[in-house]
Design brief:
The chain is α+β, with helices and mostly antiparallel strands and about 425 residues long. The protein folds into four domains: about 70 residues; about 70 residues, no CATH class; about 90 residues, Helix Hairpins (Orthogonal Bundle); about 140 residues, 2-Layer Sandwich (Heat Shock Protein 90). The chain is about 55% helix and about 15% strand. It has a five-stranded mixed beta sheet. Strand 2 and strand 3 form a beta hairpin. Helix 5 runs antiparallel to helix 6 and helix 6 packs parallel to helix 9. Bound molecules: adenosine-5'-triphosphate and magnesium ion (MG). The site of adenosine-5'-triphosphate has 23 residues, from helix 8 and helix 9.
Length: about 425
């Protein structure tokens, strides 16, 4: 009952069958002929006259020695007997109604004392009620017909919704929607066309946003180089080192902006590689750079990814844990038989709950005042998520129950 399609179909069937049942009942009540209990009276009166005459002058009647033979009609027999009795001549008449063999006429036989039987034809009385099975058959056929139509109508009505649902399910990790076929009923075609237009606009908006970021990153490099050269002319050493630090930060921002565009636009050279070995290699590399990064446990698990691109994402996460989070402890495990998981836990302050929803936004930094202590552009997590999603994986970041930040990356295992 949960699907909209089933609900619409059931509502239609119930509505149609109820209306038809009520109307059928009314029509039957108004149009059906009166039952035999109403038409039997005149027949009984005529028979009674005959009985009286036969009892008064039996010699004038051709009385039979036995009742007429044929298929006994029990109900008509009883009605006749009851009506004649009720009309009050006090005697209980002995009546037998039969239908003559070969679907012949109806015949009533009445015993006239010991003289024999008076046999008289009587008219065919209408059946008491229309047979019930005909009524049920009629309603059954209507139910079958209504169900067929209702299922078809419900199917047509939810086509557009089904299309929307399928479209939403097909939205890729980069937020784009594959082109939908513009076929089917008019509403479905219109919806598919609208979604295709939306998807095309979205793709072009995203492309132009990326072009702007790449161009800005690229164009910043020339003035940055010029500024670096100019610092040579600053005589005060402290002043010069301040300038150089700011210029380094600008440089990092430009590099990260270009890396972000590369992450979403690059063509990947995917290969099967051991995730546990990759994580161990990155950790050892970072330890060489004096960062506190340790792999505490691993299981052998392979993933199908571009080694360089995934390394960039995992390096970002491990560096974050080792810098913002003071030290990084990484584990590689199976989240399920089909999913490899990397968990990175640190011992830092975590991220305030009200801000943790923004961590993947470009240029997000928890505390802008601290930005000089730990250099960064605020693009590391944006790039990491882009890469992981394009590899068919997911990343979640939450505060650990015992403090620190927990970063979890799930990737399809092979
Ligand atoms: N493990 C962590 N513990 C606490 N805060 C974190 C952690 N990881 C990230 N953050 C916060 O999230 C912000 C965004 O991280 P992100 O990696 O995107 O940028 P970044 O590290 O500042 O710069 P970069 O672009 O060089 O990586 C950080 O500036 C920091 O404030
Ligand atoms: Mg970072």
């Amino acid at each position: 009952m949960s699907s909209l399609r089933v609900r619409i179909a059931v509502a239609l069937v119930v509505a149609i069958v109820s209306v038809v049942t009520v109307i059928t009942g009314l029509v039957l009540a108004l149009l059906s002929p009166p039952g035999p209990e109403h038409t039997i009276q005149p027949v009984a009166r005529q028979l009674e006259l005959l009985i009286n005459a036969a009892e008064a002058h039996p010699e004038s009647f051709n009385l039979a020695s036995a009742p007429a033979v044929g298929a006994a009609d029990q109900s008509t027999t009883e009605w006749l007997r009851d009506v004649i009795l009720a009309r009050g001549n006090g005697r209980k008449p002995e009546v037998i109604v039969v239908r003559a063999p070969g679907n012949g006429p109806m015949q009533a036989s009445v015993r006239i004392g010991s003289r024999g039987w008076l046999v008289a034809p009587i008219p065919d009385l209408p059946p008491r009620k229309g047979p019930l099975h005909v009524l049920f058959g009629w309603l059954g056929l209507i139910t079958i017909g209504a169900t067929t139509i209702a299922v078809y109508v419900a199917h047509r009505m939810v086509l557009t919704l089904a299309l929307l649902q399928n479209a939403v399910e097909k939205i890729g990790p980069d937020g784009t929607l594959p082109s939908l076929p513009e076929v089917g009923p008019a509403e479905v075609r219109a919806t598919a066309r609208a979604l295709n237009t939306l998807s095309a606009r979205l793709t072009s908006a995203m492309d132009s946003r990326m072009r702007v970021v790449a161009a800005a990153g690229h164009d910043m490099r020339t003035p940055i180089t010029r500024m670096r050269l100019r610092t040579e002319f600053i005589e005060d050493d402290a002043e010069r080192s301040h300038w150089l630090r700011d210029i380094d930060e600008l440089n990092r921002i430009a590099d990260s902006a270009i890396a972000l565009v590369r992450a979403s636009a690059s063509t990947f050279e995917v290969e099967n590689l051991r995730l546990d070995e990759l994580v161990a290699a990155i950790a050892s590399d970072l330890r060489d750079q004096k960062l506190d990064v340790h792999v505490v446990s691993t299981v052998p698990v392979s993933v199908r990814v571009d080694r360089l691109v995934l390394s960039r994402a995992l390096r970002n996460l491990l560096i974050n844990a080792a810098t913002h989070g003071l030290s990084a402890e990484a584990r590689v495990e199976h989240a399920s038989p089909a999913t490899a998981r990397i968990v990175i836990q640190d011992r830092g302050p975590g991220i305030p709950d009200e801000k943790i929803g923004q961590v993947f936004e470009p240029f997000f930094r928890v505390d802008r005042a601290r930005r000089q202590d730990i250099p960064g552009a605020g693009l590391g997590l944006t790039i990491a998520r882009e890469i992981i999603q394009l590899a068919g994986g997911t990343i979640t970041i939450r505060n650990g129950t015992g403090g620190g930040l927990v970063q979890e990356v799930d990737l399809p295992a092979v």
